[in-house]
Amino acid sequence: MVEIYLVRHGKTMFNTIGRAQGWSDTPLTAEGERGVMELGLGFKEKGLKFDRAYSSDSGRTIQTMGFILEYSDNQNIPYKMDKRIREWCFGSFDGGYDGELFDGVLPIVFDEKDWRATGKFPTDEELARAIYEVDTAGWAETWEELSGRIMSGFADMAAESEAAGAKNIVVVSHGMTIGSYVKMLQPDMERPYNLDNGSVTHLSFENGKFEVGEIGSMAYRKLGAEVMKNAKTD
Known about the structure:
Layout: E1 2-8, H1 13-17, H2 30-45, E2 52-55, H3 59-71, E3 79-81, H4 98-110, H5 115-118, H6 124-134, H7 143-163, E4 168-173, H8 175-185, E5 200-206, E6 209-212, H9 219-233
Parallel strand pairs: 1-4, 2-3, 2-4
Antiparallel strand pairs: 1-5, 5-6
Helix pairs in contact: 2-3, 2-9, 4-6
């Protein structure tokens, strides 16, 4: 069985100022770097040894992985990047303020003026369709393209790891991608939203099947923060 530690990347400049990052990219902030240092130290404190590492090909996930591997003492393990586990692409709204897209244009498509306040969130398929409709650049993906790449990306990583005899792997991806993937794995569950930067979602994989464990855990980061705090006072 392969144990998968699926991480949302550290906090970035766009995360901080409320921009829809998507396929555009910004580096981690000082706060974001500290958060993934904490995560790495938390993994180390738990004695976690990873056999393989994977991330999207976005700079923020690559940067996050560097901190994780260094601070968890897991350097020099096989590491691959795969564009299939990138964040959603917001097309011509990529890099724009969240409010312009999620509170401006999309409610018009859904005919819902205040869908955040009512909690009547669209499904991922509906959201992808709406983004595709309002994109003027022709960059946005259909739901079939988006869901297909996410599913195949994670499945191939898990199968490759299982074939290599890996027991523990760490994967760094993106908030909406992780939430969508978890929902696709367990359609009957509530779709997770607002996963924290540096949070860990635990999956297990065996013989072609995934199981979803704890979602969006901050326990490793909290443990690492205690390690850092104690190191300063020693």
